Amino acid sequence: MRTEEILAAIGTGLWSWDSSAGTVSLDAEAARLLGLPAEPVVRPGEEVRPRFHPADWNEIDGVVNFAVAEDTVAEARLRIVNEHGVVVRTVRSRSKPVPVDSPGRHQYVLMGILQEVAQPPDASAAQTPLTGDWRRSREAFLLDAGRALAEAGSTEEVLRVAGSLSMPGFSPDGLAVFGVSGERLTVVGHHGHNVGDEKPFTDMPLRTDYPAAEVVRTGQPIYLASPEEYRQRFPATWPLARDFGRRSWAFLPLISSGITMGAWMAGFRHSVAFSPDERSVLTTVARMLAQALTRAGAAETERELSLGLQRAMRPSLGPGVPGLAVAARYVPTGGGLQVGGDWYDTIPLPNGRIALVIGDVQGHDVRAAGLMGQLRIALRAYASEGHRPDAVLSRASRFLSGLTETYDLADGEEPSDATRFATCLYAEADPETGTLDVARAGHPDPVVVSVDGTAVIRQTAGGLPLGVEKDADYPTTRVVLGPGETIMLCTDGLIETGGHDMVTGWTRLKPVLEKHGEDLEELADALVQAVHGPGSHYTTGPLVDRREDDIAVLLLRRDGLRTRRTPGRRSAMTIAQAEPERVAAARQQLRELLHDWADAEQVDSAELMVSEMSTNVLVHTDGDALLVAEVTGERGERRLRVEVADASDELPHKRRPGEMASSGRGLLLMEMLADAWGVDPRGEGKSIWFELYESAEPGVFVGS
Questions:
Q1: How far does CA 241 lie from the centroid of its chain?
Q2: What is the DSSP letter of 553?
Q3: Cα(492)–Cα(552) distance, rounded to whole angstroms?
Q4: How far apart are CA 54 and CA 48, in angstroms?
């Protein structure tokens, strides 16, 4: 005997209700119990629903919602009525709701059994065990609704969540949210209407004889349990509402901070008595909806303010400069308003050159953005007057210091909070020669990418951040770009975001600079992606802290042949008498220039000779040393040439120092370690140089 026959013998039928498709599947016994012909059938839910007593259906809907929330079996007793509304039998339902994926709504397939039970035909719904379950399902619904509304981040999302709410026992067929604009009532959003049906209610005066308008005027809810009640209370607008075919309506005020900000309408196609429990649920949902709309509105206002500030302050690269290519990116990631103090700029100068500016005002708030805007304008003004880079930064530091001194303290703000400083790098570029005169105020050093893709930090002289001292000095360093070479200027956010320090951050960026060097725009995107893309989360720095910072990056390339097969890389550095520590920086820069040199011992020898040559200038002359290192040739057969020039006419002499002597070994070391070396007199001063060959050829020694 089949299972269906066994179940039919004991008065039990199988049924399933697909809420997403809106269809009900019944076997023969289940169809008989519902008063339909005793044969398997699949019918629309609208045809099956009238077979249940309205009061029982309202409560079973809540039981099912509770079972979905708790992942339990939904069990209840239901009265079956005929086409005249007369109760013909009572059935017991046990079913399991199985959720299904459906965007925007909680959908499920209800699968279970229907079994006839002995129940007096006049039994009321109050005598069934549904009331307690309804209250539990109401609590589950309110928790779920509160969580969903709290997570909505925009007005559109709030309305979408409100439209997907399935209230326990009396789910509305249509929803509408009304807002107030001056003395007029407008529709903010709606659900359950055909497109265009809402037009009569889209914009109306608050004095209109309409339930939502009265709710906004009085701040009191309105419940209309029947069409007759609606027609009697609001005869002027009843003809407009009549066409929607609904039986009951609830209009509730949306109140936030004691102010009625709008109204919420819930319409039902079945009659709802609006019991105290039902009104309590509706009131609670209205309060949560008002709070969610207020939060979403505030968030959207902040986003609009942020976008407005970005549009107003976002720099423009301006027209192209012959001989130079420029690309830039700005990513505000630090503050809640998505604005901060980072900026970049390009400024055409009166002498035909172009100034590159990049900087970072302390902080990630609106005030940092405001100071950034003022400082950017001041730098443009000083540059346009024709001042040199050091003078531009000196004037900007005095300007920022004056701004922070006169800043009015806000309530509760300490004087130290008003003091802000800014880091900045200002470079004046000559498109014809490729020279850049760089002045730096506490900002990260630039990076130079040679034509073969080698990226090296170009160490430059610098001063204090802007605004720290009124009369700070900012020395200038000259950097020369060869044809096809690129220089990168960036703020510390590009280096340190993700818990990195300056060392590990540079280690993360260097492969990107050396890999994506062909196209400047592609390189700019790749740098940002390396910091904020998916891969960045797997290259964290040594710190646990994952705080992000604003990012500004500016790339400049001198036009010329650029191919990885073109040999040649070059570096230059000034070592001032007052900065002997830059000898160590020169050694590091040379090591980076020779990162792929075949013989590691030759690299060590080159470092040692650079140290000796640079120190000799600082000790035996009164001037600065200019170091120039250049690598030429094909890999495996390259030549390194290093020159250290100074303004002294005194030529060095070879000596035979004793065992305990502390000096005099420089030229002897060069004679032992270099493949070629020499000293060349110049019109003003001299130049001492050495060469190393990557191939193992015999050395050629040139005397001085």
A1: 44
A2: E
A3: 9
A4: 12
Q: How far apart are CA 677 and CA 691, in angstroms?
A: 6
Classified as helix, coil or strand, 286 is helix
CA distance 572 to 642: 10
409: exposed, middle or buried (Cβ count in 10 Å: 0-12, 13-18, 19+): exposed
**Helices 502-515 + 520-532 axis angle, to 10:** 140
Burial classification of residue 498, based on how many CB atoms lie within 10 Å of its CB (0-12 exposed, 13-18 middle, 19 or more buried): buried
Distance between CA atoms of residues 26 and 245, nearest Å: 29
The whole-angstrom separation of Cα 68 and Cα 667 is 87
* Distance of alpha carbon 267 from alpha carbon 249, whole angstroms: 5
Whether the Cβ atoms of residue 350 and residue 386 lie closer than 8 Å to each other: yes
**pLDDT tens by residue, 48-72:** 888 888 767 766 766 676 677 667 7
The 10 Å Cβ neighbour count of residue 158 is 26
- List C-alpha distances in Å: 547 to 26, 145, 333, 382, 532: 58, 32, 9, 35, 12
Instruction: Return phi, psi of residue 256, to 5°.
Output: -135, 125
**DSSP summary character for residue 636:** T
Contact (Cβ atoms closer than 8 angstroms) between residue 482 and residue 503: no
Pick the closest to residue 143 from 155, 154, 151 (CA basis): 151
Q: What is the pLDDT of residues 449-504, one digit of tens each?
A: 988 888 888 888 889 999 888 888 899 988 888 888 899 999 988 888 877 888 88
Give CA–CA dist 626/647, Å, rounded: 10
Burial class (CB in 10 A: 0-12, 13-18, 19+), 587: middle
Distance of alpha carbon 327 from alpha carbon 592, whole angstroms: 25
Q: What residue type is assigned to position 60 of the chain? A: I
